[in-house]
Write a structure and sequence with these properties.
Number of strands: 0
Low-confidence stretches: 1-22, 317-323, 368-375, 838-859
Distance between the termini: 114 Å
Helix content: 55-70%
Structural class: mainly alpha
């Protein structure tokens, strides 16, 4: 016989419990036209099939509104009519329940394990809250619905849905969407209460974030997975929760781990949302403590986010404009990691000492036997100086672990990230390459090697931190040589690898090696300069460290002979390589001349061939620019080369190198900078005594200016000048003696400090040889004009007038023709024009042409603080009391009363000017205390005790006048403290509350305890001081408060507090704000001046300040003190002393 099937429809009972079916039958529905019809459809029914019918009809209505199908407001009006009809009546004894029929249906479905209805109710509620969020008029209904959800019965229903089995996404996802909408409603008005119920509302959140999409392809944005909904709920909470709640949420390790575990497999939109929210609400949230940020920004999380580099992402679909503008996943991850790893406020990056490893005291020097003088064993007396060749301990261990997982040679953005981390945490550079043993620089011409080279280039390019990472000034002991050297030239750059780059046929490898060595030499020059600066303020340790650094650097780079060999082997047409190599050779001579001068490098032929190549080139393209840069480098090298023959002529070029460069400078036939040529020409001329080598010598400027004034110079004149230069350089003594003879004839005393020019004597001697071949009239005319211009420019640039007169006579005698000689004169030149040309040319111009030195001005004049600026910096508005607080508090829950400031607003009414308001406020405080005590609020006992002690303290005084501001402010501040058990003064406040039932009105609570007793926890002293200063600032409001501060010597204690050298600038600013507040109160300035010596204290603070802005603030506050006091009384009291000081 066949067994009979049990009777009963969905939701009915049978004799035997049925197995839950996972088959989702499509629900029925109908169109809704009125709010009354909707209310009937949603009325509680025992038959869950009918209930599901009503819920589906409601869902269809909400969908049409959300999807924009409701062009008019008819359907929204139906919702409003329905919500108004089911709005509960507010009674004092009962908590109102919104949508009771839906809640009852949900409860019954949960009891009967009807999964369809368990899913349908959150779907409908989530859509309803979404509709309400878009309409301001409906927000009050939404808040009521959310508060209903926070009742214990509904919390259990939420927890039941959230903890459903893994495969029941259709139940979990709607519930998560519902909670997200509730958190976001009205700007997060109920985010805090929802989090307080986290045992229910956040149940199984970590598990749910692990239920990711397992299908093929990318997750459909319209049907998000459980993980997506869970993460969006979490992110919404992080955006809207206050700091303490956010701290508790991020402290849950399972949630943080679940958030990052599968982030690479999430859809792009979700990844972007995760990174954007974490950056805005965690990293950039300065109120969130660093120790909390580090819990989500740990090594595991950073590594997971770094895995998003190379995220496979399809081209964005052209759906809307927002998608087009959204950055890619890789760009978002890169921006996030940059902010997390380089911003010290993010908590990942810790303060460090740059080139000084962790555990090293850079100011500790071993002392002698008598402990009064350091041991003079040099740098070897520092025990840790040679300890860090194989490993470098660092403070940023988290970053050190993270960067080892990066692959900067395979990704440009990972390269940028690593370089950014190195720039903000220089201590990691040497540590990274010490541990990166697989990093090899041997050239293999692969993409990996190019990535290696690019990373090394960026690392070497980074600057050395100021003072080598020490705070404010150079330390007594230099940093370890191995660490500094690791920052200049990283370990992979071995001489063997660089030589292989030079010798390999690939131009790219040699170019990279040349550029890396160039950067390393430039960086070495800056480091040596820093050592020289430090040696001025310390002992010889820095000088010895610089010598040791040079010795070790020599062992890490190729010899200059190898660089010269590489340069000479380059093709003449390879202009980019030649320019880079010439720059490298120049740096060898400039930075490490001891090593460079070991090689005999004759730069003359290369310089001449480069000049020919530059003159033969046409146009202004990149090739010409490269040739010009190479020529500049070679000219500078020639200054250092001892084998350079400046005045030797060859068959290829008609003039010597010196005259050729002089012609280039005059004719400007090339684009080479005048400054570079002028420096070389002046150095050669002074070195070979063509001109006098003294500070006020104009050098070659008069000759160059005269040649330029001719426009075009005849070749015969260039040959003549070349011959004169060569003769003067060969026998300078002869022409110096001629100068002495001419000065003696002119009766010029030897003691007079006059400027002359040996080259001018050479020209005078050689003029007859220029005239003897009978040059053309045009050439002779130009030559005479050149001599006149030469004399004129020499006069205006400071050469001796008697010497110039004697030279003019010699010039005229050499010309032999009186008619031509009569045209020779010393013209007057305009001084401003000469001065401008001389400065552009790089020469020194004296004899009244130099700019007068600017009078020294006080550097603090740029930091004058106006009264408006002072008010903006130091003025803090007084919190006003609102009479409406007498009515608002009665409709709030105990949690809202304490945590949202309603209780504090009511307490402030005790200082009201009106006695009726004070009495009413006292009565309401007593009622509020009783209500809080009878509640289930976590801190109900402490809050009740505080409020009752305040009430007992204020009972008698409020009949006579307002309660002192100190008592009112302390009550408000203490109420904030008891909410947070981790607060620095939590223990002190509780001890104060239990010490007695009534507070003394003429004492300042906790001031004595904080200032004279030790902190409750180690390291919390300055946190307690900060709390006390904030309390005192808010307490100072009336003349009576000033009198109390005077009686209890508050200002005396505060002024003494600033003598602490370790007190931070923020705390000092708080003290200045209290002083500023006192000057704003009648009689406050007089009390500060006559009773506490505020004028002398401010002068001392000004003189002790190291910052110009801080000094300006002290001066401005001193002026305000004088402006706000009784000036006649103070002037008589101080006998005019205060006025003189101000």
């Amino acid at each position: 016989m066949v067994k009979r099937k049990p009777y009963g429809a969905e939701g009915g009972h049978s004799g035997k419990k049925q197995k839950t079916s996972h088959v989702h039958e499509p629900p029925t529905s109908e169109d809704v036209y009125t709010g009354r019809q909707l209310r009937q459809l949603l009325a509680f029914e025992q038959d869950l099939q009918k209930a599901r019918h009503g819920l589906q009809s409601f869902k269809n209505l909400l969908d049409s509104i959300v999807n924009g199908e409701d062009k008019s407001s008819e359907k929204l009006q139906i919702i409003l009519e329905f919500l108004e009809s089911v709005k509960p009546r507010e009674t004092e004894d009962e908590v109102p329940m919104y949508l009771p029929d839906i809640m009852e249906t949900w409860s019954m479905a949960t009891q009967l394990n009807n999964e369809n209805v368990m899913s349908a109710v959150p779907v409908v509620l989530a859509l309803l809250l979404k509709v309400i969020s878009g309409n301001v008029d409906l927000v009050s209904y939404g808040l009521g619905i959310c508060r209903t959800l926070l009742q214990r019965r509904q919390q259990e229903l939420l927890a039941k849905n959230l903890s459903a089995d893994n495969g029941k996404d259709f139940i979990i996802s709607p519930t998560l969407r519902l909670l997200k909408e509730a958190v976001c409603l009205d700007g997060g008005a109920l985010a805090a209460p929802i989090f307080r119920a986290r045992n229910y509302t956040f149940k199984s959140l970590a598990r749910n974030m692990g239920l990711r999409y397992l299908g093929e392809g990318i997750e459909d944005p319209k049907r998000p997975s459980v993980r997506t909904n869970a993460i969006r709920y979490l992110l919404s909470s992080l955006k809207l929760l206050h700091v303490e709640a956010k701290r508790d949420l991020l402290s849950q390790k399972d949630i943080v781990a679940a958030l990052m575990r599968h982030i690479r497999k999430d859809p792009p939109s979700l990844i972007y949302e995760i990174l954007k929210t974490l950056k805005a609400s965690v990293i950039l949230d300065k109120k969130l403590p660093k120790e909390i940020k580090i819990r989500i920004l740990n090594a595991h999380s950073l590594i997971r986010i770094a895995e998003l580099y190379g995220y496979p992402e399809d081209p964005p679909e052209q759906e809307d404009d927002s998608e087009d503008k959204r950055p890619s996943v890789e760009e978002s991850a890169h921006a996030f990691l940059i902010a997390a790893c380089t911003d010290s406020d993010a908590g990942v990056r810790r303060s460090q000492q740059g080139c000084y490893p962790e555990g090293v005291d850079p100011n500790a020097i071993p002392l002698g036997v008598n402990d009064d003088k350091p041991v003079d064993f040099g740098i070897d007396s520092i025990p840790w100086m040679s300890k860090f060749e194989n490993d470098v301990p660092v403070r940023n261990t988290l970053l050190a672990e993270f960067i080892q997982t990066l692959r900067p040679w395979s990704s440009t953005k990972q390269n940028e990230l690593l370089v950014a981390i190195f720039e903000t945490s220089p201590e990691l550079i040497a540590h990274y390459f010490c541990h990166r043993k697989s990093f090899l620089f041997d050239p293999k011409l692969s993409a990996t090697w190019i990535g290696y080279a690019a990373l090394l280039y960026n690392v070497v390019q980074l600057p050395i931190p100021s003072w080598f990472g020490h705070a404010k000034a150079y330390a007594r002991v230099p940093p370890p040589t191995s660490v500094v050297l690791g920052n200049i030239i990283p370990l992979p750059m071995t001489p063997k690898a660089i030589l292989r780059c030079f010798s390999i046929k690939s131009k790219l490898a040699s170019f990279y090696a040349i550029r890396l060595l160039t950067l390393a030499l430039q960086k070495l020059g800056r480091v040596l300069e820093m050592h020289r600066q430090a040696s001025f303020t310390s002992d010889s340790l820095w000088e010895e460290a610089a010598r040791r650094l040079l010795d070790d650097f020599y062992q890490r780079i190729p010899d200059i002979k190898d660089a010269i060999k590489c340069y000479l082997a380059m093709d003449q047409d390879d202009l980019l390589q030649r320019q880079a190599a010439s720059r490298l050779l120049l740096l060898y001579y400039e930075v490490i001349p001891q090593l460079a001068l070991r090689a005999r490098f004759d730069v003359s032929p290369i310089l001449l061939s480069t000049i020919k190549k530059v003159e033969a080139s046409e146009g202004t393209g990149e090739d010409v620019v490269m040739s010009l840069l190479e020529l500049e480098n070679l000219c500078a090298i020639a200054k250092y080369s001892p084998s350079m023959r400046w005045f030797a002529r060859t068959s290829d070029i008609p003039h010597s190198p010196f005259t050729t460069l002089l012609r280039l400078s005059v004719e400007k036939t090339t684009g080479i900078s005048n400054e570079s040529l002028s420096n070389v020409l002046y150095w050669v001329a002074s070195e070979h005594q063509l001109v006098e080598n003294r500070p006020n010598s104009p050098g070659l400027y008069p000759l160059i200016a005269a040649l330029r004034s001719l426009g075009g110079v005849d070749s015969a004149i260039w040959v003549f000048l070349d011959n004169c230069s060569e003769r003067c350089a060969r026998t300078p003594v002869k022409y110096l003696e001629m100068i002495e003879e001419q000065l003696e004839k002119a009766n010029v005393s030897e003691t007079e400090d006059i400027v002359t020019c040996p080259l001018m004597m050479t020209i005078a001697e050689q003029i007859p040889f220029f005239i003897s071949p009978s040059p053309s009239k045009a050439t002779l005319k130009a030559f005479v004009q050149l001599l006149s211009e030469y004399l004129g420019y020499s006069q205006v640039t400071g050469l001796s007038r008697p010497f110039l007169n004697a030279s003019r006579e010699l010039f005229a005698a050499g010309l032999k023709d009186q008619k031509i000689g009569s045209k020779l004169r010393i013209p007057d030149m305009p001084k401003p024009k000469v001065q401008e040309d001389a400065q552009n040319h790089g020469a020194l111009v004296t004899n009244g042409l130099d700019n007068e030195a600017n009078n020294g001005t006080d550097g603090d004049s740029a930091h004058q603080i106006s009264p408006q600026d002072l008010e903006q910096r130091l003025a803090v508005p007084i919190t006003a009391s609102k009479d409406s607080s007498l009515l608002k508090w009665s409709s709030k829950t105990p949690e809202e009363l304490v945590e949202e400031g309603h209780a504090s607003s009511l307490i402030r009414l005790l200082s009201s000017e009106h006695s009726s308001i004070r009495r009413e406020a006292l009565t309401n405080i007593t009622k509020m205390a009783a209500r809080i005590k009878d509640s289930t609020y976590d801190n109900n006992e402490q809050a009740w005790l505080l409020l009752m002690e305040l009430a007992e303290t204020a009972r008698s005084p409020i009949t006579e006048g307002p309660l002192p501001s100190v008592i009112v402010t302390f009550a408000c501040k203490a109420l904030e403290v008891i909410m947070n058990p981790l607060h620095c003064v939590y223990e002190k406040v509780n001890l104060f509350l239990t010490s007695g039932p009534v507070w003394s009105l003429d004492r300042i609570p906790l001031m004595q305890t904080i200032l004279q007793e030790g902190p409750t926890e180690d390291g919390a002293f300055y946190s307690e001081i900060s709390w006390l200063l904030g309390f005192l600032l808010e307490s100072l409001q009336t003349p009576a408060d000033v009198a109390l501060f005077h009686k209890r010597k508050v200002f005396e204690r505060l002024f003494a507090l600033t003598c602490n050298p370790f007190m931070g600038p923020n705390l000092r600013t708080q003290v200045l704000r209290i002083v500023y507040r006192a000057t704003s109160i009648e009689g406050g300035s007089d009390t500060l001046i006559t009773r506490f010596g505020a004028v002398s204290w401010l002068l001392a603070q000004r003189d002790a300040a190291t910052d110009a802005v801080e000094r300006g603030v002290c001066r401005a506050l001193l002026a305000r003190l004088w402006e706000t006091c009784d000036q006649k009384r103070i002037e008589a009291w101080s006998k005019g002393g205060v006025k003189r000081l101000v």
